[in-house]
TrEMBL record:
It comes from the Eukaryota. This is ALIX V-shaped domain-containing protein. Residues 7-68 form the ALIX V-shaped domain. InterPro entries: ALIX_V_dom. Residues 91-103 have a biased composition (Basic and acidic residues). Residues 110-119, 134-145, 174-183 have a biased composition (Polar residues). Coiled coil: none annotated. Residues 69-183 are annotated as: Disordered.
Length: 183
């Protein structure tokens, strides 16, 4: 009877120690899981701080690039308007000089002549009577014009190509003379 009680007791002890070991393992796994969760929380909070810092850096970068872009556009507009006014003044001077040279009576040519309202002068000779200008010895296949070109409408944002001098070869094509192309 003592042996049976003893064997029962030993069986219960084994069961008890096995259950305790299971609980110890479960508790250890719980502690490991808790430590892992804490480390994950730390990692995610550091990641959030990094992302927030990166977001601020990106916003600052984008803001700075936009400001630089706006400054460049302003500078380009200022340069363009300055160059347009300079170009317009040079073009007006050149047209005044051309009109003075083409005038029938040089004594009547005034330096204040406006080319926009001035009528086109009549040719000195009727067709077939003779050339308007004396023949010159110049190279090329270009003919001497018999009258100045008619006034042409100007369009804002576009500048006309510079006219050719009467007795010179045509200038080479330079795209920067014509301003920025749309599109």
């Amino acid at each position: 009877r003592v042996r049976s009680e003893q064997s029962k007791y030993e069986g219960m002890q084994r069961q008890r120690s096995s259950v305790i070991n299971k609980y110890k393992r479960a508790y250890q796994e719980f502690l490991d899981l808790e430590a892992g969760l804490q480390s994950a929380k730390n990692w995610y909070s550091e990641m959030r701080e990094t992302v927030e810092s990166l977001e601020k850096n990106v916003q600052t970068f984008v803001h700075n690039r936009r400001a630089e872009g706006a400054q460049l556009l302003d500078r380009m507009d200022q340069d363009r308007s300055a160059s347009k006014s300079n170009q317009a003044e040079l073009e007006q001077e050149r047209l005044r000089g051309l009109m003075e040279r083409m005038s029938v009576d040089p004594a009547k040519a005034s330096p204040q002549t406006s080319t926009s309202n001035r009528p086109t002068p009549a040719p000195l000779f009727q067709p077939g009577q003779g050339p308007r200008y004396p023949q010159s010895n110049f190279q090329g296949q270009y003919q001497v014009p018999t009258s100045p070109p008619p006034n042409q409408a100007t369009y804002p944002g576009y500048s006309s190509p510079p006219p050719q001098s009467t007795f010179s070869a045509p200038m080479a094509y330079n795209p920067s003379q014509y301003g920025r192309t749309p599109g």
